Amino acid sequence: MKGGRLCLLGHWTALVIAMLATPAALALDLRDIRLWRAPDHTRIVLDLTAPTSHKLITLENPDRIVVDLADTSLSANLKSLSLDNTPVTAIRHGVRKGDDLRLVFDMSTAVKPRTLVLTANDQRGDRLVLDLYDKNPSRKVAKPSVKKSVETSAKRDIVIAIDAGHGSGPGGLREKTVVLAIAKEVYRLFDREPGFKPKLVRTGDYYVGLKKRRDIAHQVQADLFVSIHADAFSSPKAKGTSVYAWSERSASSSFARFLAQRENAADLVGGVSLSDKESDLAEILYDMSLTSTRDLSLGLGGRVLGRMDRISKLHRKQVEQAAFAVLKSPDIPSILVETGFISNPQEASQLRTRKYQGQMAAAIHGGIRSWFVEQPPGDTLLAWQKRNSSREYVINSGDTLSEIAQRFNVSVANLRSQNSLSNNTIRVGQKLIIPAS
């Protein structure tokens, strides 16, 4: 009987070993495929249950992109993917060498493919990112120059480049979604106001490299670059809103250094080539010019921080500094706004509401606007209005009587007297007569 038990045990042991040794048990799984379109490329993300090796092949006549995944099975539904507005016309799959998965992407035109392997983290599993870059992109980005070339005009608009960060977050709330909503509201507030011309760096759910964000700001000849974020931290206790400016030396705090390092690593996650850097000469020119724009950034950032203090708890009472790569522009004042910590449950619950998003957008808009109202660039409409003291002014959202007085170089007392105002209360749409300065 004892011998029978040993025989039975040996039989089951051999069976388990045989099952574990089968290719199906060893193979990992491609469980999902996500695809979306950016202005200059198409991104395809392959969600895997574990890391694996891969091979990328480009074929011509007809154009195809082939990706081979070692020891991988397919459970993702390829038919559910929408290929509209992309150069991908079809996705096919098959088995190669017994256990390898082959994906074939039929293309309507030739592209420049690039892959990036992303390891699992707290929020996502292992991924293989396939970027298909257009060979003839519709939107060319101008190279940055130290000297601005804004078209000379006595009444030009002030250009605000609005950049929405593109990160994830714990739970179902995504930074990229929240800050894009805030950025679009900032855009809307500036777009309806004479004298300002807003530009969104990204308009949808796609990643833009850190350097390219600066390049876009240079292309549109921006007077200000504002990057909007809602970062995450390892501890859910981290909280508070803040504003940052560039520092070419040391960070103003260890936390500022941490955030800068985290944001600067975004290109690794976004799949941007790290070899795409400025030349040594351009770097020298950048460093020579950064000091002057930094001072403007600190002053302007202080205005935004003051408005944010009215609606949220500040992480720090002053504008902090750190080496955020996205802020490194020599001739454009640049600030980074942290609208709260998406990793903090209380702040996350605020950030997901349209009301708070609107309040934050109004604070960013109001701070920027008040700065340029007081000290507009000399060739702008706001500067012309300030010099010529227009006789009539219509109140816009965010206006205060003191700011209007400063814009037209008159005293608040004279402004109230001219318009028979008993106090400083004004309303949107109200017309004011501006006395001679």
Give the gist of this structure.
The protein is an alpha/beta fold and 437 residues long.
Total of DSSP H or I helical runs spanning 4+ residues: 12
Fraction of residues in H or I helices: 25-40%
Q: What's the CATH architecture of the largest domain?
A: 3-Layer(aba) Sandwich
CATH superfamily of the largest domain: Zn-dependent exopeptidases
Largest sheet composition: 6 strands, mixed
Summed up, the domain count is 3
Q: What Rg do the Cα atoms give?
A: 27 Å
Assigned CATH class of the largest domain: Alpha Beta
Tell me what portion of residues adopts beta-strand conformation.
15-25%
Q: Please tell me what the overall shape is.
A: elongated
- What order do the strands of the largest sheet run in, or round the barrel if closed? 11-10-12-15-13-14
CATH topology of the largest domain: Aminopeptidase
State the order of secondary-structure elements, H for helix, E for strand: HHEEEEEEEEEEHEHEEHHHEEHHHEHHE
Mean of residue pLDDT values:
81
Number of strands: 17
User: How far do the termini sit from each other?
Assistant: 112 Å
Q: Which consecutive residue ranges, at least 5 long each, have pLDDT under 50? A: 15-26, 139-152, 271-278
Structural class: alpha/beta
SSE inventory with pairings:
Blueprint: H1 2-20, H2 23-26, E1 28-37, E2 41-48, E3 54-59, E4 64-69, E5 72-74, E6 88-96, E7 100-107, E8 111-118, E9 126-134, E10 158-164, H3 175-191, E11 196-200, H4 210-219, E12 224-229, E13 242-246, H5 254-264, H6 266-270, H7 280-308, E14 320-322, E15 334-338, H8 345-351, H9 354-374, H10 381-388, E16 392-394, H11 401-407, H12 412-418, E17 431-433
Parallel strand pairs: 1-5, 10-11, 10-12, 12-15, 13-14
Antiparallel strand pairs: 1-2, 2-9, 3-4, 4-7, 6-7, 8-9, 13-15, 16-17
Helix pairs in contact: 3-9, 7-9
